[in-house]
TrEMBL record:
It comes from Cellulomonas edaphi. Catalyzes the NADPH-dependent reduction of N-acetyl-5-glutamyl phosphate to yield N-acetyl-L-glutamate 5-semialdehyde. This is N-acetyl-gamma-glutamyl-phosphate reductase. Its main location: cytoplasm. The lineage of its organism: Bacteria, Bacillati, Actinomycetota, Actinomycetes, Micrococcales. Signal peptide: none annotated. Keywords: Amino-acid biosynthesis, Arginine biosynthesis, Cytoplasm, NADP, Oxidoreductase. Residues 4-138 form the Semialdehyde dehydrogenase NAD-binding domain. NCBIfam families: argC. Belongs to the NAGSA dehydrogenase family. Type 1 subfamily. Its EC number is 1.2.1.38. CDD domains: AGPR_1_actinobacAGPR_like, AGPR_1_C. The gene is argC. It catalyses: N-acetyl-L-glutamate 5-semialdehyde + phosphate + NADP(+) = N-acetyl-L-glutamyl 5-phosphate + NADPH + H(+). Gene3D superfamilies: Dihydrodipicolinate Reductase, domain 2, NAD(P)-binding Rossmann-like Domain.
Amino acid sequence: MTFSVAIAGASGYAGGEMLRVLLAHPDARIGALTAHSNAGTTLGAHQPHLRSLADRVLAPTSTENLAGHDVVVLALPHGASGAIAAELEALGDQAVVVDLGADHRLVDPAAWEAFYGNEHAGTWPYGLPELLHAGETAPRAQRAALAGTRRIAVPGCNVTAVTLGLQPGIAAGLVEPLDLVAVLANGYSGAGRSLKTHLLASEALGSVQPYAVGGSHRHIPEIAQNLRSAGADAVSISFTPTLVPMARGILATATARLVPGTDPAAVRAAWEQTYADEPFVHLLPEGQWPTTASTLGANTALVQVAVDEAAGRVVTVTAIDNLVKGTAGGALQSLNLALGLPEALGLPLDGVAP
Ligand SMILES: NC(=O)C1=CN([C@@H]2O[C@H](COP(=O)(O)OP(=O)(O)OC[C@H]3O[C@@H](n4cnc5c(N)ncnc54)[C@H](OP(=O)(O)O)[C@@H]3O)[C@@H](O)[C@H]2O)C=CC1
Ligand SMILES: CC(=O)N[C@@H](CCC(=O)OP(=O)(O)O)C(=O)O
């Protein structure tokens, strides 16, 4: 079965990466590629690494250009995707719509308004196939929720990393969900191409800088939502991202207080059981630690867990490529499920190195 796919926001980082992974998918046929301020220019002017479509002219992002495809991917700023998705719905367009942005991720409108400051667009099935549901020891229910869906809300990249790191301990009841701490090292591409044009290389290179400190980051309610899905009654997480001088990658170190009396051996067993059969989430052998470099270009999440007995805490480290497992690869994995295709079809398991 082949499917046609349009990408809105093809001039941006997320849209460009979506196009790259779709070009390697045996069943995808690339349709309209659209942009906003860069409409009318060629794809090659913005994505010079995508040679096979370098001469394609970017059309304006409009329902007229996006309608009539089997799949529409929205790689647009927050707010823009909700509006265009509503227009496609009103037209009666039959496409499977995949939103790489945040507009349809949160279930609770009050949480949306508190962190995003505008009206909530709605809630779509959440595009993290590996999300645990309460009572599960391995992820199945979220895959069932994605099978055949016509709408997919792709997770935030930081959220994917922190959720995958912590959820086995939450689901198994081994850690306290009200005492979570996450500190992340993030590559610059996570901030998007258009949002940081003022940043000087002389300031970015050779420096690590925190941002959205003190409980203000938009991904906090999304992480809490996921960990409640995994079985927590309530979640409290201190979340601090930092920008590090690399283009891609997230290294998320997330720690949690061990429930008193827990056998440390049970910890590794829980993480092993959760990810034993996962094609893209790999618990590394004991003593090996995830690095961002070993995930670049791949749809993998590398996870490690250890018990710090003196501190009474479980320490998890998760590495992903923010643009692949954190965005476009995860989106294609969920899209495969939506279309009834093998979940791993066309997705890169191997990365690039050094
Ligand atoms: N970068 C990442 O790692 C991740 C990004 N995402 C999400 O993906 C989405 C796109 O992000 P990213 O690619 O990084 O951002 P970029 O800034 O790199 O790209 C933004 C894209 O949206 C278009 N655009 C800008 N303003 C508007 C508008 N008002 N209406 C319609 N289109 C517009 C731009 O077109 P033009 O160039 O023509 O102006 C461009 O194609 C965001 O919602 C982001 O949160 C999700 C997970 C991770
Ligand atoms: C480095 C950097 O700024 N990263 C972004 C990641 C954005 C992302 O994952 O996605 P959404 O905007 O779609 O939620 C951040 O932390 O906000």
